[in-house]
């Protein structure tokens, strides 16, 4: 059974249709990345899944509970971990007190191991916390009761690169022990490293739903060849070559054809050196973020790491 199942989920804020008939599933035991430019509608979906906002059309099920059915959603939420984008902790109390409060409501069977990975200074009042320490406290509270499903809104914002990497490792291990993870993100490198599948939302509509590997395969390879000047025009003209550009002593392009065909073609030329890579995920996703100057999406920063 899918852990999350959206069925025409719609939110009209009265003028702004933030989610427009979204239908997709998050399957058991996968890490699903929910991507989209600023204002695309990610937080709106997440807040509806947690029952914090009411849909104006369609519905969704989380762990089998219809989000319109308050009672069954409350029951399901005991088995869900949630990390909101904005962490509204009581600033006056210590991190330890915050965790005790959450433990009282839902349990804390994994608290000690989480405190070894994420390391906020729990003896200090939350008001003294840096953004990263707040995020870590939030992550501990999201996972401490060993939930079956974890929903997170931009979980790594504010974490330093080392903690981000620890977070990546941690959620991969969580997935391997069977936890299902759904999170929104702007950090493409993180999505590449940890997600099994992604959904991309733009102006409230789902524009892509695909395995990360498939997206990358479909997007071709980035090829950089050093060769004699006279063969460069012929290399640039090969079938399947797009976005070609030359540099002194070589040419680079995206190759969208069959890789063996490229290798056979290249064997006919005097090639000095070659580098074949997956395209950066930025290249793969960038066309979903068209009209960037006309929308709020111009805040999208694909290099945000
Ligand atoms: N309470 C509200 N009332 C009216 N419009 C809203 C409300 N909340 C969000 N919106 C609008 O709905 C759209 C989607 O917003 P949402 O916060 O879901 O996007 P997002 O993808 O999470 O963005 P970001 O990446 O910037 O956090 C935006 O146009 C936003 O301005």
UniProtKB/TrEMBL annotation:
Q: Which InterPro entries match?
A: AAA+_ATPase, ABC_transporter-like_ATP-bd, ABC_transporter_ATP-binding, P-loop_NTPase
Q: Where are the transmembrane segments?
A: none
GO molecular function (one) = ATP binding
Residue stretches making up the ABC transporter domain = 4-228
Matches recorded under CDD domains: ABC_DR_subfamily_A
- UniProt-listed SMART domains: AAA
Q: Which PROSITE patterns match?
A: ABC_TRANSPORTER_2 (PS50893)
UniProt keyword terms in alphabetical order: ATP-binding, Nucleotide-binding, Transport
Q: Sorted alphabetically, which Pfam families does this protein's record hold? A: ABC_tran (PF00005)
Family assignment from sequence similarity: Belongs to the ABC transporter superfamily.
This protein is called what? ATP-binding cassette domain-containing protein
Q: Which organism is it from?
A: Halorubrum glutamatedens
């Amino acid at each position: 059974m899918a852990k999350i199942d959206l069925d025409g989920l719609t939110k009209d804020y009265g003028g702004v249709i933030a989610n427009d008939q979204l239908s997709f599933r998050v399957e058991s035991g996968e890490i699903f990345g929910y991507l989209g430019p600023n204002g695309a509608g990610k937080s709106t979906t997440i807040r509806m899944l947690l029952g914090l906002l009411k849909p104006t059309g369609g519905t969704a099920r989380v762990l089998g509970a219809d989000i319109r059915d308050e009672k069954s959603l409350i029951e399901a939420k005991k088995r869900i971990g949630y990390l909101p984008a904005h962490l509204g902790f009581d600033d006056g109390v210590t991190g330890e007190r915050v965790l005790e409060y959450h433990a009282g409501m839902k349990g804390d069977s994994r608290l000690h191991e989480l405190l070894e990975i994420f390391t906020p200074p729990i003896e200090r009042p939350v008001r003294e916390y840096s953004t990263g320490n707040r995020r870590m406290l939030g992550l501990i509270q999201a996972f401490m009761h060993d939930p079956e499903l974890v929903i997170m809104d931009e979980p790594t914002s504010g974490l330093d690169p080392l903690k981000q990497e620890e977070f990546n490792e941690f959620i991969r291990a969580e997935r391997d022990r069977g936890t299902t993870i759904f999170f929104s993100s702007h950090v493409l490198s993180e999505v590449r490293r940890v997600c099994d599948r992604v959904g991309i939302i733009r102006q409230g509509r789902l524009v892509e739903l695909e395995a990360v590997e498939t997206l990358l395969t479909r997007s071709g390879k980035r090829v950089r060849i050093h060769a004699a000047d006279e063969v460069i025009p012929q290399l640039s003209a090969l079938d399947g070559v797009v976005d070609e550009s030359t540099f002194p002593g070589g040419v680079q392009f995206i190759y969208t054809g069959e890789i063996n065909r490229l290798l056979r073609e290249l064997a006919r030329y005097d090639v000095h050196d070659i580098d074949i890579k997956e395209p950066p995920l930025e290249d793969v996703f960038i066309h979903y973020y068209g009209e960037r100057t006309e929308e709020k999406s111009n805040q999208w920063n694909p290099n945000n790491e």
